[in-house]
Write a structure and sequence with these properties.
single chain, 494 residues, alpha/beta, Fumarate Reductase Iron-sulfur Protein, Chain B, domain 2, FAD/NAD(P)-binding domain, 3 domains, 5-stranded parallel sheet, 17 helices, 18 strands, 17% strand
Length: 494
């Protein structure tokens, strides 16, 4: 695949980014298009590796390795190198309904499993993936393709995130009548309200939703199933139901002072900001503002990074991100071999912006939050912490110890909790009498997606717990296959 000596001749080039300082003045996409000549060179770097571990996703040591949707990566890399873009698009869409979402917001576990990555920088897979689909839209190759024949079967999909949209898209191709329910006012789930505009612009989500609507899928925003739409109607009106409501139950930090004002879940901060931005360009003030505040973000993951970028655009006074873990090494360690996801230090887009604005990386490592302290108005004013050290004992247990004398006090008028989710919200699950597993997720075996209720399936984070966009798309596609099999007795869906 690619050019036989391409990986020797060309260096890795990733999608270029706008200047970190200047881009903080707006909410536009922080990335820039890569010239086609460079994209062809990046496609040429794809080796004839024999076993393309990039395109087969699996969980290894708690992280994803390779692509869960089994993207035909070497094939479309080669086609881009050969300047056969339309053919590359066809191969890309064969396994992934929404390469624009994964091309912009996926952490690219495919690149972590790239064979070239054993001893060289991996192929810039995500950059090529995004370029293919964008060229497809620009050239008019991506068009509505409604099914030529319809069945009489009606399917309800609850939740319009990546799992729900993928399930609906696949079942619509099979000719069924699809209705997608979404409790928010805009379709897209966390694609719309959980990922900031500069990382995944809403116009990209809406472009795809509009296309799916033209293909015959009905969308029901502002409809909370169980409240606005009774469960009994859901079960009576549809031949099958797929639950794709996500894992939106926040993980809390139950320590002293948690009840103080100014302490918010990260997703509430991001959601209200995006809604206000889309509704009024933030003129309605219906959002949690970081302006002129000392902001503490607790949590070292992607959501925390999104909070950094959003706070900077609000013109916060200062910005610190607490990471409970140690700073990661610059390169893979012996206990993190290829093709595992490389656990290395990364400077993500939010860190670059914070460094450009404030002069330093905003992260503080091995920090444990002990308590919040408020002012006379019961608003948070301080965060008290202590440093911790971690080690593995003789029995293989991970041990955490506080380090005496490392207590610190941080000024803070806004604290954002970006420490993940514990599972799906339970109200609809309980009302439907759907069984759950030990982690409160909907109980449905991977690959089967069947719940304890006949004709009711579950996919995505609601079934597997908090995970990646690409896993959600994988599960939505596969749940659609099993749902089609249930409805028709057999299926031709992949």
């Amino acid at each position: 695949m690619g050019k036989p000596t391409g990986f020797k001749e060309y260096k890795r080039q990733s999608t270029p980014e706008r200047d970190p300082l200047s881009r903080t003045k707006d909410w536009k996409d922080y990335k820039l298009p890569m010239p086609e000549a460079e994209l062809k060179e990046q496609g040429a770097r794809c080796m004839d590796c024999g076993i393309p571990t990039c395109q087969t996703g699996t969980d290894m040591n708690g992280h994803t390795s390779g692509c869960p949707v089994y993207h035909l990566i070497p094939e479309w890399n080669d086609l881009v190198y050969q300047d056969q873009w339309k053919e590359a698009l066809a191969r890309e869409l064969k396994m992934n309904n929404f390469p624009e979402f994964t091309g912009m917001a996926c952490p690219a576990p495919c690149e972590g499993a790239c064979v070239l990555g054993i001893n060289e920088p991996p192929v810039a897979i995500r950059s090529i993936e995004r370029a293919i689909i964008e060229k497809g839209f620009d050239e008019g190759w991506v068009k509505p393709e409604p099914p030529s024949v319809r069945t009489e079967k009606k399917v309800a999909v609850v939740g319009s995130g990546p799992a729900g949209l993928a399930a609906a898209a696949q079942l619509n191709k099979a000719g069924h009548h699809l209705t997608v329910f979404e409790r928010s006012d805009r379709i897209g789930g966390l694609l719309t309200y959980g990922i900031p505009e500069m990382k995944l612009p809403y116009e990209v989500v809406k472009r795809r939703v509009d296309l799916l609507e033209k293909e015959g899928i009905a969308f029901m925003p502002n409809t909370d199933v169980g409240k606005d739409y009774p469960v009994k109607d859901l079960q009576n009106d549809f031949d099958a139901v797929i639950l794709c409501g996500g894992a939106t139950q926040h993980r809390d930090l139950k320590i002293e002072g948690r009840e103080l004002g100014g302490i918010h879940y990260a997703m509430d901060f991001l959601h209200t900001n995006t809604k206000s931005l889309l509704d009024s360009e933030l003129k309605d003030d219906n959002y949690i503002s970081a302006k002129a505040k000392d902001v503490i973000v607790i949590g070292g993951g992607d959501t925390g990074t999104d909070c950094l970028s959003t706070s900077i655009r609000h013109n916060c006074k200062s910005l610190t991100q607490f990471d409970y873990n140690q700073k990661k090494p610059a390169e893979r360690q012996a206990d993190n071999p290829w093709p595992e996801w490389p656990i290395i230090h990364r400077l993500e887009y939010g860190h670059k912006e914070a460094k450009a604005v404030f002069g330093t990386d905003p992260r503080a490592y091995t920090v444990q939050t002990k308590k919040f302290v408020g002012d006379e108005n019961n608003q948070v004013k301080e965060v008290h912490t202590i440093d911790v050290e971690q080690y593995i004992d003789e029995f293989g247990n991970r041990i955490k110890q506080e380090i005496p004398g490392t207590e610190r006090v941080w000024p803070a008028q806004l604290v954002l909790l970006a420490i993940g989710f514990t599972g799906p919200e339970q109200s609809l699950i309980k009302e439907m009498n759907v069984k759950t597993d030990s982690r409160s997720n909907v109980k449905a075996d991977y690959g089967q997606y069947k719940t304890n209720l006949d004709g009711v399936f579950a996919a995505g984070d609601m079934r597997r717990g908090q995970s990646l966009i690409v896993w959600a798309i994988n599960e939505g596609r596969e749940a659609a296959r099993e749902c089609d099999r249930f409805l028709m007795g057999s299926t031709q869906l992949p």
